[in-house]
Specification:
Blueprint (H helix, E strand, L loop, with lengths): L15 E6 L1 H4 L8 H16 L3 E6 L2 H15 L3 H5 L8 H22 L4 E6 L7 H16 L3 E6 L20 H11 L4 E6 L19 E2 L1 H4 L16 H13 L4 E5 L5 H6 L6 E3 L14 H16 L3 H17 L1 H17 L4 H7 L3 H15 L8 E8 L2 E9 L2 E6 L4 H13 L2 E5 L5 H12 L11 E4 L5 H5 L7 E5 L2 H9 L13 E5 L5 H13 L8 E7 L7 H11 L3 E4 L1 H7 L15 E7 L2 H11 L4 E5 L3 H10 L4 E4 L18 E3 L7 E3 L5 E8 L16 E3 L4
Parallel strand pairs: 1-2, 1-5, 2-4, 3-4, 5-7, 6-8, 11-12, 11-14, 12-13, 15-16, 15-19, 16-18, 17-18, 19-20
Antiparallel strand pairs: 7-8, 9-10, 9-24, 10-23, 21-22
Helix pairs in contact: 3-5, 7-9, 12-15, 12-17, 13-17, 15-16, 20-21
């Protein structure tokens, strides 16, 4: 996705920021104060203050709060007969402002005092700004307050304002608190103005309209005539129109502006960290238009359109594309390694763990292996259009079940750039469109691999078949596209997978943890067991199919078998942690949790009574990934293989065999521990679904009166 980081680079130099909080944020729909949101706002401003930012707050809400207080007062003093009559809201707005202003400031003072922050109040009218002396004094006062780490709180003094609605007229300097915030940002030489609203930012239409899209960067020349505004604020006199007008004026006069939601508790901090949230207004925004911003929907639709062109190609033509991809990988090895080495150097400099850096590396043998796996996929039997079942429903009425691509798949993966190659090759072979979001630690590697692979895709299909998402802030938009994206496959931490499952309607396939077990039975060949656990733990410790827990039958703790296993692991530099029984017996540190994925040269050992205790342990603490039993007792082995409820279960073989390439799948998009659609290593078949084709000769149902059903199974090949 062409989302340019430079559109938020300017926040790095921000020191003085004006924050304007709207009425819809300050108050609830019934007019009462939204204390939770106000408390979160004050905590953010305190954090900014502590970090050295100069914070100026412009607040709305006084009129609404005053009206609410006066309404309660009138109700409290009304007789029963008074309450039987209709209660109109005829309070004077200026009186409401006078009453509400003191209450609002008292609340801010209380909240800031609890946070050990001092605040101050400044009430202004637009006429003041016509006075040069006032403007200088205002600037001097605010500078003095900021030097003292005091937060100035501004509001328009509606109680004594001589202007009446409509507020925006040719005589006004500002017309509401949005335009006041813009004026103050310029007058006080702020580096940034943040306008907090009740929506995520500026949309192309009313936010309630499903077709409306969030505009991340406002370009006046493009958006001014395209936007349809919704209703104004439910309580204030502004709304999005007022915010956009204020933002445009301030931005084009030199102060960048971001409109974002005040309902999210940490949005101000996220804005200042450069996250791509809300809508940015900047005087140089028109210069960014050349780095065209492609929306999530546009990218997904382009991938879908390209996939449909890919599907109409012959099997031979799709195979040729994969062969070209394999050649391109080998021909561009030096460029790929150069970018990958830059990623590794950056990761080492940032202090990333060795296990992550190991997953990040693209060594020559890895690139060669990737090219080989792509060619293996090219030589596989054609997966699309395979007849899975043929049934004669009635005379001359034949039903066929055939394989077909899922559509568009979104893959979110961390650390491993080699996953990009495998997934892209599987997508091409299976006729699917693909959107890829890799981890930031592999940014350069992913970009060069994407460039190399898409360069091998012919124009008849289009390089948009495979889209590369470069911003993590784009993920929420993508996860909303359940009408375009057909499957999400997250490859990463448990936290990542859980977050995705919680925030999308799109089906999610994948696993969160790789808590793989090896159980060494009392009837095991100890020499074989040593080789298996050594390979399962040390062949590639960072892999999700590496052994994380070794379960040992209790009899091996008395006949020397356990000692041999421990020595084998220690000789390989494996750090050992024990369960309650093993830690006591072996005098090693006790593990903090059995459900722990080390992804390094470390593992947990525990002693169990028998195979059934091992099975119970796996079901209680495992992640349903891959489990292994080492035993010469075939009856015990069969019990383990039948009863362990994991995606892959092995007998006398290393857990490291759980891999798409080793299974002969060519490659894998990931390993699924789900129980629906696909399970275990997911290759081409896991990216396919089916369609039903009915071939008739003019038959109609007509209440089933004219059809004699035969439902006869037919040979797959005609």
């Amino acid at each position: 996705m062409s989302i340019m980081d430079p559109t938020r680079d300017f926040v790095k130099s921000v020191r003085r920021v004006v924050v304007k909080v709207g009425t819809a944020v300050v108050t609830r729909s019934d007019g009462r104060l939204a204390l939770g949101r106000l408390g979160a706002l004050c905590e953010q401003l305190k954090e900014l203050n502590t970090k050295g930012y100069e914070v100026i707050l412009v607040t709305s809400g006084a009129v609404g709060l005053g009206r609410q207080r006066l309404r309660y007062r009138r109700l409290a003093n009304s007789s029963f007969s008074d309450l039987q009559r209709p209660q109109g809201d005829d309070h004077d707005g200026k009186a409401c402002a006078a009453v509400g202003q003191s209450s609002l400031m008292a609340l801010y003072d209380t909240m800031f005092s609890q946070l050990d922050v001092t605040s101050s109040q400044l009430l202004v009218n637009d006429g003041f700004f016509r006075d040069t002396a006032f403007r200088k004094q205002l600037s001097d006062t605010v500078n003095s307050l900021l030097d003292l780490r005091v937060i100035p709180i501004f509001n328009e003094n509606d109680a004594v304002s001589t202007r009446k609605a409509p507020y925006e007229d040719s005589s006004g300097i500002f017309w509401d608190n949005d335009s006041l915030a813009g004026l103050l940002a310029l007058e006080l030489k702020a580096d940034l103005l943040v306008l907090l609203s009740d929506v995520e930012g500026l949309y192309s239409g009313p936010p309630s309209d499903p077709k409306s899209k969030l505009i991340h960067t406002y370009i006046k020349e493009k958006h001014q005539s395209e936007i349809t505004f919704g209703d104004k604020s439910r309580l204030g006199r502004g709304g999005m129109t007022a915010k956009v007008n204020a933002a445009v004026c301030a931005a084009y006069a030199g102060t960048p502006v971001i409109i974002t939601s005040g309902y999210v508790t940490n949005n101000i901090m996220r804005v200042l960290q450069g996250e791509r949230i809300g809508t940015v207004f900047h005087k140089d925004a028109h210069l960014w238009i050349n780095t065209k911003e492609v929306s999530a929907r546009e990218m997904a639709v382009a991938a879908r359109d390209s996939s449909r062109r890919l599907q109409v190609l012959s099997s031979e033509e799709r195979s040729k594309i994969l062969m070209a991809v394999a050649d391109a990988l080998e021909n561009n090895e030096s460029m790929i390694r150069s970018e990958n080495e830059a990623d590794i150097a950056a990761a080492e400099g940032a202090g990333y763990e060795k296990s992550l850096i190991s997953r990040l590396a693209l060594k020559p043998e890895k690139i060669s292996s990737l090219a080989k796996s792509v060619r293996l996929l090219a030589d596989m039997e054609e997966p699309i259009g395979q007849i899975l079942k043929r049934t004669e429903l009635a005379d001359n009425l034949t039903l066929e079940k055939i394989s077909c691509p899922l559509g568009v798949i979104l893959i979110i993966f961390e650390s491993r750039p080699d996953a990009l190659v495998q997934i892209a090759a599987l997508a091409i072979r299976s006729g699917n469109g693909l959107l890829l979001k890799g981890g930031k630690e592999a940014k350069l590697s992913n970009e060069v691999l994407h460039k190399v692979i898409t360069s091998a895709i012919p124009d008849t299909v289009g390089d948009k078949l495979i889209g590369l998402v470069t911003s993590r802030e784009a993920i929420p938009d993508l996860l909303k596209l359940d009408d375009v994206i057909d499957l999400v496959v997250p490859r990463g931490s448990n936290k990542l997978v859980s977050q995705i499952k919680d925030t999308t309607k799109i089906p999610v396939l994948g696993h969160s943890d790789g808590i793989c077990h090896v159980y060494v039975d009392k009837e095991a060949n100890i020499d074989m067991a040593k080789q298996i656990i050594k390979d399962a733990k040390t062949d590639y410790p960072a892999a999700c199919n590496a052994m994380e827990t070794l379960l040992v039958h209790k009899d091996l703790s008395t006949n020397g078998g356990l000692d041999q296993l421990v020595v084998e692991l220690k000789n390989e530099g494996v750090e050992l942690y024990g369960g309650p029984r093993a830690s006591t017996l072996l005098n090693i540190a006790e593990t903090c949790s059995f459900h722990h994925e080390y992804s390094s040269l470390a593992c947990t050992i525990e002693i169990v009574d028998d195979v059934f205790a091992a099975i119970d342990h796996i079901h209680q603490h495992g992640s349903s990934h891959t489990e292994c039993i080492v035993t010469e007792d075939s009856e015990v082995a069969e019990a383990f293989l039948r009863q362990v409820d994991s995606a892959s279960v092995f007998h006398n073989a290393s857990t490291r065999f759980c891999d798409g390439a080793r299974f002969g799948l060519g490659a894998e998009v990931g390993i699924s521990t789900s129980r629906i659609h696909a399970r275990g290593p997911v290759g081409v078949e896991g990216l396919l679904t089916n369609r039903w084709i009915l071939r008739g000769n003019g038959q109609v149902v007509d209440g089933d009166k004219g059809v004699t059903y035969t439902h006869k199974e037919l040979p797959l090949k005609v």
